Amino acid sequence: MSHYFEEDPNLKPHEREIKFTLSGVEMSLISDSGVFSNKHIDRGSEIFINYLLSLNLEGKVLDLGCGYGAIGISLLYFKKDKITVDFIDINPKCVELTSRNLKNYDLNGKTSISDGYLNTGEKYDYILFNPPISVGKEKIYSLYADTVNELEKSGKFYLVIRKDKGGLSHLKYLSSLFDSSVVYKEKGYLIIECLKKE
């Protein structure tokens, strides 16, 4: 059985157009078989994007585990004068789709294939994450721990997670690493903000 976070060379391509509306604008992204939520944008990402659009984001942003780029591309589309966005995913198909979706909107963003952070020493003002719960807590928690060193001193880490998928236990672990709090709730989803501890 293949997972969306792994490349499956035996999976037949099935590209489709994903459409969703943000701030009255219809967005359109290319998706394909073998990537997360390939038939429509998932509810968690949609809630996450709308929340992030309400913030005054400025600076360097990382879309961690970017999939086909829905979160980072949406933010870049509306805030391209204020932010730059890098995109990382373990799945080469996701990175290819993100690159194509950026090009279709004439947007610039650096895309990289990586199982976690690139460890280049580059630091971010914001790191955004819709964690793939099915990989298990051990892997996700190791990414949380790595995030501490990837943020600028005043940087912020935001993630969206369903409460019934262990959201509160994730919050408890995150609170051991950051000053963490739930900043928004909607339809069973929690958006958690994490700040570097002094």
Distance between the termini: 44 Å
Strand content: 25-35%
What is the total number of structural domains?
A: 1
Question: Which sheet architecture does the biggest sheet show?
Answer: 7 strands, mixed
- CA radius of gyration: 16 Å
Kindly report the name of the CATH homologous superfamily.
Vaccinia Virus protein VP39
Overview of the structural elements:
With 198 residues, this protein is an alpha/beta fold. Helices cover 28% and strands 33% of the residues. The protein has helices at 43-53, 70-79, 92-104, 137-147, 167-177; strands spanning 16-22, 25-31, 59-64, 83-89, 110-113, 124-129, 151-162, 178-186, 189-196. A hairpin with a 2-residue loop joins strand 1 (16-22) and strand 2. Helix 1 (43-53) runs parallel beside helix 2 and helix 4 packs parallel to helix 5 (167-177). The protein starts with 15 loop residues before the first strand and ends with a strand.
